[in-house]
Design goal:
By secondary structure, the chain is of the alpha/beta class. It has a single domain, classed as Metalloproteases ("zincins"), catalytic domain (Collagenase (Catalytic Domain)). It is built from seven helices and four strands, in the order βααβαββαααα. Helix 2 crosses helix 6 and helix 4 packs across helix 5. The longest helix has 17 residues. It is globular, with a radius of gyration of 15 Å. It starts with 10 loop residues before the first strand and ends in a 9-residue tail after the last helix.
């Protein structure tokens, strides 16, 4: 576990599907960028938090989706938060996660992303795989921080953080494309 703040990166990356390295040789840097954007977007210092990212294939994520959500199909991204941080009212900000023991990073939970679904969605939307993967990891990381899109108000809050964060690194608003057929992350 990436518990040492001196490490400087918030993501422990597990690459289960080797084709991720071929598709995105810089996946580790992309994952850390996305998680850092999520943490900063939620007003948290990335030096104090960590998460685990599983870079897998459609078969693996379909099994996880079935086991944890009762949906026997692949999806693009899944999240398992370590804490229940949901906002008290729709559209509100989630509770802040508890701080770790001094000198350690606090684990926030786990995220899984599937290569084939992510690639297919990027191709169908004519956007770079890199941009779509960053968005999905950012999205999954925000779920770990208590953000969701169960109501329109919650979705607006989460999407505002995502679009601002992505704009910081030159990635276009993914929700402008969502209205044109791109599925919302994790649906």
């Amino acid at each position: 576990m990436n518990n040492d703040p001196a490490n400087g990166t918030p993501v422990d990356l597990v690459i289960e599907e080797p084709a991720w390295r071929e598709a995105l040789p810089d996946i580790e840097a992309l994952a850390n960028t996305a998680a850092t954007l999520a943490l900063e977007g939620a007003g948290l210092d990335p030096a104090h938090w960590t998460l685990c990212l599983l870079a897998c294939d459609d078969t693996r994520i379909a099994g996880l989706n079935h086991d944890f959500r009762g949906k026997a199909a692949p999806t693009n991204v899944l999240s398992w938060p370590a804490f229940t941080l949901a906002p008290k009212q729709p559209g509100g900000l989630p509770e802040r996660p508890p701080q770790a023991i001094s000198g350690l990073r606090q684990p926030l939970g786990d995220v899984a992303i599937a290569l084939q679904t992510t690639r297919r969605e990027a191709e169908n939307s004519a956007i770079p795989l890199k941009n779509h993967a960053i968005h999905l990891i950012l999205h999954g990381s925000l779920h770990l921080l208590g953000f969701d899109h169960e109501t329109d108000d919650d979705a607006e809050t989460m999407e505002r953080i995502e679009t601002r964060a992505l704009a910081r690194i030159g990635v276009d608003d993914p929700y402008l494309r969502s209205d044109a057929g791109q599925p919302h992350p994790d649906r």
